[in-house]
Specification:
The structure is a single chain. It contains 13 helices and ten strands. By secondary structure, the protein is α+β, with helices and mostly antiparallel strands. The strands form three sheets. The chain has a four-stranded mixed sheet.
Length: 392
């Protein structure tokens, strides 16, 4: 078994690490304090070819594999979680439905500019009354002359209200089957479409530099060629890209745990009490040991899920496990790092306080950890011959 990253991936990871050290880390605290979305950083990521990592080269992407994507996430997320989470939403749920189900014209029209980094993408699923219950959405799309009229509200949507937002991919209910089940479809709604408005930027516990808003659709008309994939298959289309999204959130957790450990070690070796560095005290040293051990365990769970995805093998259960474990490791690492910092960790001027505030959402986003446990348990108790594809 070879646990080394390919040479090309290591080189890219080092390049991103250097970029983050220059362009992100020195400014992340100010962006967070001012709740400022750093547009220029995403433009530069586009220039580096990183805004379409999972998009094939024929649509102006990098055509990278999932393992390489995770390696890049490790560096971006260790520098700033707001930038990394915005990049992640753009790179996965905002672009992958277009890639998987869009027509050739839709890919050239909307996917390619996103992959080039000329714009940033958003995906509208969550609603005020529907989060984990994705099937419970109430936003509707009804047929109109030459297109569809969309009505409803989306909540907690990332990247929709920035000055480089191109549009949002929206999941809506289009009707019901004979047995009463809902039909769903996915639509692309460009920014500035009449009837589509972005609410104010939400003030969050963490991820302060990430743009998060409520979206309102009031008789918002989109032409027929804005329908992505087949009408009636929208929910299935969303679920088909969810597993890769779970890997990416797991990678976010991995990156946060990595940053928390580095900050804890730095403080513990520099800060002295009773004439000795904190790291000389067994209580502190054991915290660092536990953080490092859990970080390594999380790392290989995340990379294994990514490795399985790249080989076309079932990886749904492994993705859920990685997301569950890495997000909880991130929260434990951030908490222990604040404890090691003491009072310095509790003031907002400290770098660790920002990561501590960012950590909790990792247990909530892209499927709560309660949902992940349901997914894992269902796979483990289902006989292999009956296990659903991608969940065994």
């Amino acid at each position: 078994m070879d646990f080394d990253l390919p040479e090309e991936t290591r080189a890219l990871q080092e390049m991103v690490r250097d970029f983050a050290a220059r362009e992100i880390t020195p400014h992340a605290a100010a962006w967070s304090e001012n709740e400022e979305f750093p547009t220029h950083v995403f433009t530069k990521l586009g220039e580096l070819g990183l805004m379409g990592m999972l998009v094939p080269e024929e649509y102006d992407g990098a055509g990278a594999d999932t393992v390489t994507y995770v390696a890049v996430m490790e560096e971006l997320g260790a520098a700033d979680q707001s930038v990394a989470s915005s990049w992640n939403a753009h790179s996965t749920i905002a672009t992958l439905p277009l890639l998987a189900y869009g027509t050739e014209e839709q890919k050239r029209r909307w996917l390619a500019p996103l992959a080039r980094g000329e714009a940033i993408g958003a995906f509208g699923l969550t609603e005020p009354g529907a989060g984990s219950d994705a099937a419970g959405i109430t936003t509707t799309a009804r047929r109109a002359d030459g297109g569809w009229l969309i009505n409803g509200t989306k909540m907690f949507i990332t990247n929709a209200g920035t000055d480089i937002s191109q549009g949002v991919t929206v999941l809506a209910v289009t009707g019901r089957e004979d047995d009463g089940r809902k039909r769903y479809a996915t639509f692309y709604v460009p920014t500035d479409t009449p009837g589509y408005t972005c609410g104010r930027k939400l003030k969050k516990l963490g991820w302060h530099a990430m743009d998060t808003r409520e979206l309102v659709f009031t008789d918002c008309f989109v032409p027929d060629d804005h329908l992505i994939g087949e009408e009636g298959g929208g929910l299935r289309q969303f679920l088909s890209v969810l597993d890769k999204g779970r890997i990416s959130v797991a990678a976010l957790g991995l990156s946060l745990a990595k940053a928390a450990l580095a900050l804890a070690v730095q403080h513990a070796t520099e800060r002295e009490q009773f004439g000795r560095p904190l790291s000389a005290f067994q209580a502190v040293a054991h915290k660092i040991a536990d953080m490092g051990t859990e970080l390594q365990a999380a790392r290989w769970m995340v990379y294994r899920a990514a490795w399985l995805a790249d080989r076309g093998r079932p990886y749904g259960t492994e993705a859920a496990m990685a997301k569950l474990y890495a997000s909880e490791v991130a929260n434990r690492a951030a908490s222990q790092a604040v404890q090691i910092h003491g009072g310095y960790g509790y003031v907002r001027e400290s770098e660790i306080s920002r990561f501590y505030a960012d950590a909790k959402i990792l247990e909530i986003g892209e499927g709560t950890n309660e949902i992940q446990r349901n997914v894992i348990a269902r796979a483990l108790v289902t006989p292999p011959a009956q296990a659903p594809r991608g969940r065994a």
